[in-house]
């Protein structure tokens, strides 16, 4: 079975990422630094590596977000995302 | 609030199993009493964590099947042979046991009446679970709301026996606002005149809302199904931003 | 909030208890071979495939697929250990020893260095001390369990460094960059260990 058949999406990583961002990430709109496409993070592709979270652009496969936890830190590499738009609560 | 990045507590809590029932030979519903449950939106899930006495841990996500208004949280688990977590949840866990969960989680793959419709729900296998929460939420709305938001469900399973919530879905399909169509991919009962194949473009053209109706589509199930169906919907002219997906990974 | 984790009644996971001494600390034996990937399976035609060893000074040596298969090969049987806690015993591989490749590279003028960075189709990288890929400890493998290495497990060719955590055995490897100074790869940038010895539980930097 290929990794593509097993891949999930940003919804699956939402619980883990909520611990990092203290917010629901799936509704955030992320712009790919590679191809410029903007998508909700729930629509990004998650590869189940088990070592951390990797969210990739469905259009160009670029790793838009990488997150890994070690005992002292959670490290976040968002260099694959050129912009993140976070919806605000209704006033 | 629709679509906001809602912050707030997300901690592991020990829920109590208050009810357990088989839906099909392979699927079982667990009803949980979760302390301080804040309520949820249809489409959200919980993470479940199992810790053995030697510290070994396994964690999985399960969609919430119950309507947002329910006091308890229902999860429907598909039992996968030789897997690590689902056989435990289906065969070992019993009423009165504790189960560690955190949630509700999700904000993208959610629907409530405020989002509107018409609604196109497409499920493969256990992908029906979050869509069932949406249907149950829809069923509780006022007649006026339900008139305004018609629903079409297309649900693909291997066999008639594997259709989860089949009786309830058939009942929901009796109302004029809800159309339920099953597609069986492996084996059909005698006399079956419905679809006997995987969901394909022709099926979506026959059953889907016209693109001019600007429907909201939710597609959930095994990854290959989700990706093929969502690509077909876009090919048929639906706006990608109105097609939401949740992948469940491998097929069974 | 409880300090003690909640123990799930009757939960054991599906792992058998491994024989003492063969499992590194914190590991559990599996009989499966889980497919874990950081990205989609790269598709590469063997006609276009090559393997390169290069240094920072511009010297390099390349093998085409046919040239690679003509090299002397080993058939190691080894235990492998993933940092996600599963271990698998007696896995059977076929591949070319990295010692063989480095001998050719040195003869071609590629300088030595203390470290290597493996680079792969799809962009994955991992760094290792040179001492951990020499002395018969590491291979570039193209066969698994008596058959060609399947794409989901890293085929056509992956690194095999079984004495280290398996994230160092990079899938879809296309070459090694010899380095004088260590440089973190894909997971090491995010805090995983530069070396990764499971017997010393070197999972994270600083372990």
SSE diagram, text form:
The complex is a heterotrimer of chains A (91), B (252) and C (207).
Chain A: H1 3-6, E1 8-9, H2 10-21, E2 29-32, E3 38-40, E4 45-46, E5 53-56, E6 63-69, E7 74-77, E8 81-85
Antiparallel strand pairs in A: 1-4, 2-3, 2-8, 4-5, 5-6, 6-7
Chain B: E1 13-24, E2 27-33, E3 45-51, E4 57-63, E5 73-78, H1 86-92, E6 98-105, E7 119-124, H2 128-139, H3 143-148, E8 151-159, H4 166-172, E9 178-187, H5 201-207, E10 216-221, H6 223-235, E11 243-247
Parallel strand pairs in B: 7-8, 7-10, 8-9, 10-11
Antiparallel strand pairs in B: 1-2, 1-6, 2-5, 3-4, 3-6
Chain C: E1 28-29, E2 50-54, E3 60-64, H1 65-69, E4 77-81, E5 86-97, H2 98-107, E6 115-120, E7 125-129, E8 139-144, E9 147-148, E10 158-160, E11 173-179
Parallel strand pairs in C: 1-5, 2-11
Antiparallel strand pairs in C: 2-3, 4-5, 5-8, 6-7, 6-11, 8-9, 8-10
Structure report:
The complex is a heterotrimer of chains A (91), B (252) and C (207). Chain A has 2 helices and 8 strands. With 91 residues, chain A is of the alpha+beta class. In chain A, the strands form 2 sheets. Chain A has a 5-stranded antiparallel sheet, covered by helices on one side. The longest helix of chain A is centred in the first third of the chain and has 12 residues, at 10-21. Chain A starts with a helix and ends in a 6-residue tail after the last strand. Chain B has 252 residues and is of the alpha/beta class. Chain B folds into 2 domains: 13-105, Beta Barrel (Elongation Factor Tu (Ef-tu), domain 3), CATH 2.40.30; 113-247, Rossmann fold, CATH 3.40.50. Chain B is 21% helix and 33% strand. In chain B, β3 and β4 form a beta hairpin. Chain B is globular, with a radius of gyration of 18 Å. Chain C is globular. In chain C, strands 1, 4, 5, 8, 9 and 10 form a 6-stranded mixed sheet that branches. In chain C, strands 3-2-11-6-7 form a 5-stranded mixed sheet. With 207 residues, chain C is mostly beta strands.
Subunit organisation of the chains: heterotrimer
Strand numbers in spatial order across the main sheet of chain A: 1-4-5-6-7
Strand fraction of chain C:
25-35%
**Low-confidence parts of chain C:** none
CATH fold name of chain C, please? Answer: Sulfite Oxidase, Chain A, domain 2
Q: What is the count of DSSP helices of chain C, taking H or I runs of 4+ residues?
A: 2
Mean pLDDT of chain C: 93
Distance between the termini of chain C: 28 Å
Helix-residue proportion of chain A: 10-25%
Beta-strand segment tally of chain A: 8
Helix/sheet category of chain A: alpha+beta
**Approximately what portion of the residues of chain A adopt beta-strand conformation?**
25-35%
The percent of residues in helical segments of chain C reads under 10%
Structural class call of chain C reads mainly beta
Query: Measured on Cα atoms, how large is the radius of gyration of chain C?
Result: 18 Å
CATH architect. name of chain C? Alpha-Beta Complex
Mean pLDDT of chain A: 91
The CATH superfamily label of chain C reads: Oxidoreductase, molybdopterin-binding domain
- Count of DSSP strands of chain C: 11
Number of domains of chain C: 1
Which geometry of chain C do the CA atoms define?
globular
């Amino acid at each position: 079975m290929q990794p593509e058949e097993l891949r999930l999406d940003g919804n699956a990583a939402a619980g883990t990422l909520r611990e990092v961002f203290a917010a629901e990430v799936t509704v955030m709109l992320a712009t790919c630094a590679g191809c410029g496409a903007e998508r909700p993070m729930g629509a990004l592709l998650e590869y189940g590596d088990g070592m951390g979270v990797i969210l990739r652009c469905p259009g160009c496969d670029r790793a838009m977000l990488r997150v890994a936890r070690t005992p002292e830190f959670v490290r976040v590499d968002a260099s694959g995302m050129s912009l993140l738009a976070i919806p605000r609560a209704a006033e | 609030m629709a679509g906001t990045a809602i912050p707030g507590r997300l901690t592991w809590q020990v829920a109590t199993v208050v009810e357990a029932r088989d839906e099909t030979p392979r699927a079982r519903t667990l009803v949980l009493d979760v302390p301080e449950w804040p309520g949820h939106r249809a489409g959200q899930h919980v993470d479940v964590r199992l810790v053995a006495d030697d510290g070994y841990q396994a964690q999985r996500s399960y969609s919430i099947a119950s309507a947002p208004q329910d006091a308890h949280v229902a999860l429907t688990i598909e039992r996968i042979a030789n897997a690590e977590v689902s056989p435990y949840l289906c065969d070992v866990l019993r009423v009165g046991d504790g189960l560690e969960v955190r949630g509700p989680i999700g904000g993208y793959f959610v629907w409530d009446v405020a989002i509107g419709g018409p609604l196109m729900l497409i499920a493969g296998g256990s992908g029906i679970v979050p869509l069932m929460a949406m249907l149950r939420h829809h069923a509780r709305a006022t007649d006026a709301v339900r008139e305004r938001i018609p629903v079409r469900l297309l649900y693909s399973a291997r066999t008639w026996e594997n259709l989860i919530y089949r009786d309830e879905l058939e009942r929901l399909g009796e109302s004029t606002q809800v159309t339920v169509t099953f597609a069986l991919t492996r084996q059909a009962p005698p006399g079956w005149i419905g679809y006997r194949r995987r969901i394909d473009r022709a099926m979506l053209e026959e059953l889907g809302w016209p693109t001019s109706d600007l429907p909201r589509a939710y597609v959930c199930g095994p990854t290959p199904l989700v990706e093929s169906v969502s690509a077909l919907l876009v090919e048929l002219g639906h706006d990608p931003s109105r097609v939401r997906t949740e992948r469940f990974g491998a097929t069974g | 909030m409880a300090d003690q984790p909640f123990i799930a009644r009757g939960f054991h996971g599906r792992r058998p208890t491994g024989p003492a001494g063969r499992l590194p600390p914190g590991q559990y034996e599996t009989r499966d071979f889980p497919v874990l990937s950081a990205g989609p399976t790269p598709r590469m035609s063997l006609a276009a495939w090559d393997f390169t060893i290069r240094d920072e000074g511009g010297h390099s040596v390349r093998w085409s697929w046919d040239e690679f298969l003509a090299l002397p090969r080993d058939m190691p049987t080894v235990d492998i250990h993933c940092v996600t806690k599963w271990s698998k015993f007696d896995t059977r591989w076929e591949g070319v020893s990295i010692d063989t490749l480095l001998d050719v590279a040195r003869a071609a003028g590629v300088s030595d260095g203390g470290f290597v960075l493996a680079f792969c189709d799809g962009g994955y990288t991992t760094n290792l001390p040179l001492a951990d890929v020499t002395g018969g400890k590491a291979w570039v493998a193209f066969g698994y369990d008596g058959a060609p290495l399947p794409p989901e497990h890293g085929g056509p060719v992956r690194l095999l460094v079984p004495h280290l955590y398996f994230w160092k055995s990079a899938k879809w490897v296309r070459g090694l960059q010899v380095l004088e100074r260590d440089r973190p790869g894909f997971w090491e940038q995010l805090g995983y260990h530069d070396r990764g010895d499971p017997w010393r539980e070197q999972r994270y930097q600083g372990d």
